């Protein structure tokens, strides 16, 4: 995978790309599309006036509108970058304005639900290629985006059976041009994989931060002061966008609850090992988990810098 | 708090400091003591020959030995930097060699157990001032240490009742000189606070990484590939030293199990909210947890950089 996004294409992949929702992901796509010249025209659509004003100031789109139906008109690629719970409303509102032959895609962290929400509303001749770029930060909004957000990250496509192969290939080319590696799988498998690599970790992080804030025996001030012992790592993902994450859990209910149940079984075993002083069991687990970290680093999904490369001062 | 460690003292705080265990913490203390001239002589004691050889190469101590009794002789400060489960053996082995008036301290992540292990073996005239610098990385060994590890971090002292006040003050000065803020509390309260800010987060991280590795429905390769969705944050602390952490859990059993039970109650409530589609409850929690993150950043225990400041490439 390249170390940089690469130069602008001589011929754009698309004539007109409409982005619905200019938050962290939508605004990062806009920046990367602009940088690589992937579209002749970028249309930014958002229902929030403050966001639209900011997008104009940032000059990351060619056209800016709050009118969803007008915004998607004539676009040959429309990407939904909204919380997954909003997808059906968006699909219904825009369906009559979609151009024949257009590709509709999204960036949602849940895929089966998005397909169920969007697919029934799309007219014949429009292809739906659901996508999930596995990338992000804990910040939200158009200022949080940056062009290299997807560089060296995976983007998962989950086209429903029967999706036009040419449309899938165009989306593969699109995400490759944003610097991502692309993998195709079913929506059902995606939702299971992401439940364990993303959704349950977020849920656990939100939970542990909430529990710590509510203790009677330890003050919030103490939790904050002594957070460098490990707790602060959890606060990063527990600072992610509340609406986005509420929707993820509501729309990937079964897989999240299944993975959570599995996690709870393992926690019970671990608690038992602690209660009974079974040090070998603990040591074995703690040794095995190191190998996973090494795998993540060797596959380029993380750097080996200690403490996430948090800045060290000179002595 | 200063941005740097500060210049060497004109007059060292101690004549002879003996460090027992030259891993991440012990070797960081050695480097910081040298940098600030806190001791005329630094003695490095370790039972591992490879560690001792490396300490010699790194030139971070003035004397290097595997002989614990000989190493502590004449020291006016002796700091145990070993896994908490090893403290009693160390105390027994060194007790006859301790100098009258010496201060013994430690850096263990658990305090009540360390006091119970060490205190009974110390001769009259030797003060025990247990300490816990809340700082570290996921790496181990003498090469992992660095002089600024404790800068802007908290160090908690938990002197047993009746400890000589002058000895406590000297240890406060010592840790301040390493760049830390110092707080004094009881060992019992320390163990409760750290259970939630450090021990349970580590346990949960080890557990979630272990669970992910053992799933039948999702491959280990998929877990690694798609770890940027949140999972990889957990793998950092789940890569911490297995022996150190085994000992932490075995020696802070009650507080860890109590906090874990509390966490499990909260997880059950959250799972119920997901099952019943109670989006407002989820959104409320996810909003509250953001405030804790802001507190940690505003108190200087974390920087505001997105994604822990993981390196971004230029486009």
Automatic annotation (TrEMBL), chains A, B:
Domain of life where this protein originates: Bacteria
Top enzyme category: oxidoreductase
Enzyme Commission (EC) number: 1.3.1.12
SUPFAM superfamilies, sorted: 6-phosphogluconate dehydrogenase C-terminal domain-like (SSF48179), NAD(P)-binding Rossmann-fold domains (SSF51735)
Residue span of region Disordered: 296-315
Biological or metabolic pathway of the protein: Amino-acid biosynthesis; L-tyrosine biosynthesis; (4-hydroxyphenyl)pyruvate from prephenate (NAD(+) route): step 1/1
Pfam families: PDH_C (PF20463), PDH_N (PF02153)
Keyword vocabulary terms for this entry: Amino-acid biosynthesis, Aromatic amino acid biosynthesis, NAD, Oxidoreductase, Tyrosine biosynthesis
Domain Prephenate/arogenate dehydrogenase: 15-304
InterPro entries, per database record: 6-PGluconate_DH-like_C_sf (IPR008927), NAD(P)-bd_dom_sf (IPR036291), PDH_C (IPR046825), PDH_N (IPR046826), Preph/Arog_dehydrog (IPR050812), Prephen_DH (IPR003099)
Entry GO MF terms: NAD+ binding; prephenate dehydrogenase (NAD+) activity; prephenate dehydrogenase (NADP+) activity
Coiled coil residues, start to end: none
Catalytic activity: prephenate + NAD(+) = 3-(4-hydroxyphenyl)pyruvate + CO2 + NADH
Record GO biological process: tyrosine biosynthetic process
Stored PANTHER family: PREPHENATE DEHYDROGENASE, PREPHENATE DEHYDROGENASE [NADP(+)]
Family: Belongs to the prephenate/arogenate dehydrogenase family.
Protein name: prephenate dehydrogenase
Annotated source species: Microvirga brassicacearum
């Amino acid at each position: 995978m390249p170390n940089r996004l690469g130069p602008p294409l001589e011929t754009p992949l698309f004539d007109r790309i409409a982005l619905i929702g200019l938050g962290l992901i939508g605004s990062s796509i806009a920046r990367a599309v602009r940088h690589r010249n992937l579209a002749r025209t970028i249309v930014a659509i958002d229902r929030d006036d403050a966001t639209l004003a900011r997008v104009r100031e940032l000059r990351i789109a060619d056209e800016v509108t709050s009118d969803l139906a007008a915004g998607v008109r004539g676009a040959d690629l429309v990407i939904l970058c909204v919380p997954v719970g909003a997808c059906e409303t968006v699909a219904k509102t825009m369906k009559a304005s979609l151009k024949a032959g257009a590709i509709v895609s999204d960036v949602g962290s849940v895929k089966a639900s998005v397909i169920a929400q969007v697919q029934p509303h799309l007219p014949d001749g429009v292809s739906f290629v659901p996508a999930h770029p596995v990338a992000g930060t804990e910040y939200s909004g158009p200022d949080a985006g940056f062009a290299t957000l997807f560089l060296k990250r995976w983007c998962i496509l989950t086209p429903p059976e029967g999706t036009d192969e040419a449309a899938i290939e165009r989306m593969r080319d699109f995400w490759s041009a944003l610097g991502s590696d692309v993998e195709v799988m079913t929506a059902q498998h995606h939702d299971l994989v992401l439940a364990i690599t993303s959704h349950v970790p977020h849920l656990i992080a939100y939970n542990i931060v909430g529990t710590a804030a509510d203790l009677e025996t330890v003050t919030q001030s103490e939790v904050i002061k002594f957070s460098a012992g490990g707790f602060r790592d959890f606060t990063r993902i527990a600072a992610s966008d509340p609406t986005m994450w509420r929707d993820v859990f509501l729309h990937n209910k079964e897989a999240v609850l299944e993975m959570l149940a599995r996690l709870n079984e393992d926690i019970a075993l671990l608690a038992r090992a602690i209660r009974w002083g079974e040090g070998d069991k603990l040591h074995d687990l703690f040794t095995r988990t190191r190998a996973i970290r090494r795998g993540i680093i060797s596959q380029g999904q993380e750097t080996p810098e200690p403490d996430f490369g948090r800045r060290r001062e000179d002595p």
